[in-house]
Amino acid sequence: MYEVVTPEVILKLMTSYTQATQALKQLTFKQLQQFVAVVDAGSVQAGAEALHMAQPPLSRSLAKLEAVVGATLLRRTHAGVSLTPQGEAFYDAAVNLLATAGAAVAGVRRANEKQTASMTIGFVTPASNGLLADLVRQLDRPERPAFVRLVEATARTLVGDLVEGKVDVALAYGQQTLPSIRCRTVCADELVLAVPATWVCDEKPFVFERLADEPLICFPQAESPQLYQTIQETLNNLIGAISHGQSAVQTSTILGLVSDGMGYALVPRRGVAVLAPGLRLIELPTHHHPLELCLWWHGASENPLVHELVSVEDLSIS
To answer: Where are the beta strands (DSSP E) in the chain?
Structure first.
């Protein structure tokens, strides 16, 4: 049997369509994200924490969402929230809509990147001062624009990122021994001694032997193995015994601990961008171990920008 299409039926269909259209105009992706986050978290409070927002505005947003769709989507109890039958249908649709929108944005970004040459450069913190800008200029030129991402990480993380293809090249200290990783020296650097200002008397030369009784603040061996080894070898030649203190990944953190009187440190000169109050830098004797700042890349990389960069005879990095 076929339903007779009367004027009343047509009016009902038009009214439903109009209501749905008006509801869509009032819905936002933010409301959908908040609704899904609350359902996934199991309560409004947990959802607010996951969204890094206060609970009252989130509750108001959910109430407005239910008013827009014209149905109760959540059952609220002391134990948390659960979905009503209407909420279950809306949740599935919201998740699919958010996933579709995310895929659309990602697709546009991938299309843009295909049109523009791109490269991801990983780097350790001390290498950032004055060096990254030179590398970016080598790649992003007026006659051939390139999209360059910068990723700051430890040396150990950068090795893994190169192997996994998360970065195209890495700027770090020391040669790399993995068979799949290629390496070239970019420039030389050197270690300088950082001590609390109270340890230094301008009228007298610094006595390096006193370091044997003071704690060394150093980069973690697991995160920066080449830099750690160079520091240890330098100190072994300089003072012999080493008393280990705190460790930190960031050069700025290490220098901050030194300026607060917690010990001394050997850091790459390039890592000292600004001298913190209460901190003094002292030149080391000439027999200390030099540092090599190197460019690492995966030997199987198919990115043409990698081959272009590593084949540049002079990277113009000073």
So the answer is: 74-77, 80-83, 117-123, 146-152, 169-173, 181-189, 191-196, 215-218, 243-247, 265-268, 279-282, 291-298
- Classify residue 2: in a domain, yes or no: no
Q: From its phi and psi, is residue 124 left (phi > 0), alpha (psi between -120 and 50) or beta? A: beta
Q: Which residue range is the domain that position 157 belongs to?
A: 117-182+294-310
- Model confidence band, residue 5 (pLDDT cutoffs 50, 70, 90): very low
**Are residue 241 and residue 103 in the same domain, yes or no?**
no
Token pair for 259: 């300026």
Asked, for residue 315, whether it belongs to a domain, the answer is: no
Same domain, 281 and 299: no
> pLDDT value at position 22?
62
Q: Which residue has the higher pLDDT, 289 or 310?
A: 310
Statement to judge: residues 147 and 218 lie in one domain:
no
User: Is 317 part of any domain?
Assistant: no
pLDDT at 20: 53
Indicate whether 237 belongs to any domain: yes
Residue 11 has pLDDT above 60, yes or no: no
Pair of tokens at residue 148? 């360059």
Ordered DSSP codes for 143-198: TB-EEEEEEE--HHHHHHHHHHTS-SEEEEES----TTEEEEEEEEE-EEEEEEGG
132 & 89 share domain: no
CATH of the domain at 230: 3.40.190.10
Query: For residue 81, which of 66, 68, 70, 95 has the smallest C-alpha distance?
Result: 66
Helix, strand, coil distribution of the chain in percent, nearest 5: 45, 20, 30
Decide: 273 and 264 in contact? Cβ < 8 Å.
Answer: no
Nearest to 177 by CA among 234, 229, 123, 130: 229
Contact (CB, 8 A) for 292 and 174: yes
